[in-house]
Amino acid sequence: MNRSAARKRLAELRSEIDHHNYLYHVRDRPEISDEAYDKLFRELLRLEEEHPDLVTPESPTQRVGGAPLDSLETVEHTAPMRSLDSSPELSEVERFMDRVEKALGPGSPGSPGSDTAEIAYVLEPKLDGASLELVYENGLLTRAVTRGDGQVGEDVTENVRTIKAVPLKLRAPKGTGKRGSRKWPPLLAVRAEVIMPIDSFDAFNEKLIAEGKEPYASPRNTASGAIRQLDSRLVAERPLDIYVYDLLVGDLAQMAVGTQWEVLEALEDFGLRVNDLPRRVTSLDEVADYHQRMMAIRDELNYEIDGVVIKLDDIAARDELGATSHHPRWAYAFKFPPRKEITRVLEILASVGRTGVVTPVAIMRPVEIGGVTVSRATLHNREEVARKDIRKGDKVRVQRAGDVIPQVVERIPEKGKRRRPKFKMPKGCPSCGTELIERGPFSVCPNSFECPAQLKGRIIHFGSRYALDIEGLGEESAKMFVELGLVKHLPDLFELKTEQLIDLEGFAEKSATALVDAIATASKTDLHRFLYGLGIPEVGNTVARDLANHFRSFDSLRTADEETLQSIDGVGPRMSEQIVAFFAEEHNAKVLDQLLAKMELMVPEAPHEGGKLEGAKFVFTGGLDSMSRDEAKVLVEAAGGKVVRSVSKATTFVVVGDKPGSKLAKAEELGVEVLDEEGFRGLVESDYSK
Ligand code: IVH
Fold this sequence. Notes:
alpha+beta; D-amino Acid Aminotransferase, Chain A, domain 1; DNA polymerase, domain 1; seven-stranded antiparallel β-sheet; five-stranded mixed β-sheet; 25 helices; 26 strands; binds 2-(butylsulfanyl)adenosine
């Protein structure tokens, strides 16, 4: 066959195979037999072999995986991937809906075109798998990234390409709705859940057991483990599936969408796999019904779900509500109640955590709860053990909810059975012997940086991915360093020498040198990574970034008082108290000084000093045409201004977009200056740097 005929036939074959692939894996409705499909596929393979230069990356033959990687690269998400606020209580869901209604106000854009001011929500099953971001540029899959910490995740593109339900190329959309005809936006980022179907999971585990290997704990762990494999050829052998459920980035006008319901339609129209259970509702009763129904059909589904996600339908109204540092304010997870089983307590141990809190842990006769074998459960704290009166030998009810540590719910009384004495918290730390102090119901070992149990955890955390990211510093090495006395305090880490490590188990000259080098490199790090790595109670990754951005120097942070800390968005009284206490602790102060002497902290770039908008506070209401809220925020901050959520006398400008909410009225009432989009652009785009 000549080149141009081959080119033409290749295009035909690919589009035909893509189509059948789509019918089979996305729609579950194959139209041809497996044999007929294989025949087409073989023809494509043969023709590509004859014309290797005509192979394209989106060809269906390119899903078999490539050479293994050394490690997964960390990349930034196109838009933050937040998690959901959640509860299994209907009353909490009601509170969520009340908050939404209150924030949007009467006649809000929550219900386009309706004067009844009924707010619409889309309900979807909450899939229990691994969350991913998929990015399509000009219709081609260019990136797949795990959720990671929500800001950055791991690049798993090669692995995701092997999942047949993920189109490498989007389909040409057919949909023309009331908002006009639909196109792919040039940049489309969506959120999806990778799952392993339950039947495949069972078959996979049976095979492992037959080979004498350890079976996997749950479909979810198997899916998230598979997706993070370094060898994509192994991933290609795993029967993974995917559901796409949320838009992260994409031009709404081009997609001809304004609601979540329409987003799901559009994504489906683009050939992406969308779940078929969503429903659009307007009342709490309907939410309760849907939750009941999902619970009833839960065990019939071929994938695991652990609740229902409630999402505000109107996208412009979502922007109006915004997000906290953790959760969007426009969505909520209505979880299923946890699954429970009965077993017996064999022993109660006191276990010291990374932050020094000593937790009583029940060691139990292993029991299977919802597919996972459980043999340890937390008893939380001294008061909790006393209140539930759990003792060694007792019969207990244990529950497990999703990812959280199993809990002992209650004791099941046994008539006429003699019980053991009550559990008593030890006086001294089970790890270092230091006398425990009482903090509320908790017992805490105050020896933060020397207690071996804490030190090991602190070293691991300090070197972890979102902290100093020291490759090679893991559980095993941290344990050895502490046990052999090579690291007695955190700063000793920077004194480790290659010669000390070479003879240790698991080390050779190359790995020892690599680790010492990695530690030296990590001694120069971002302020926010350092802060996160310290493991200050309550200070997670997002807060660490916020603190770094606000203070821009470690010294001003460590001397800040509670009031100053609380002026930062997202820092409340409890957090500020913990931060101040952490820095005030004498022992910590000494260790921090030693660390600082060995490290160099890089500070985020300062905003335009004396920028034209220095000190100005902006509130946005309604959707902007020419940019997203995030882009607008960047412009404001670049000019020295700040974006805040609610209108008050202290607000400088209220920027009004399409379908403004109640904030406009508030601005007018308070006499705050109102800008339209053009006025806003004029303000931020003029030369503000002196
Ligand atoms: S929407 C910003 N919809 O649940 C909100 N999440 O903490 C975006 N999940 O890890 C999430 N099914 O991956 C959404 N239908 C669904 C979902 C879903 C499962 C996961 C999500 C996240 C977790 C929530």
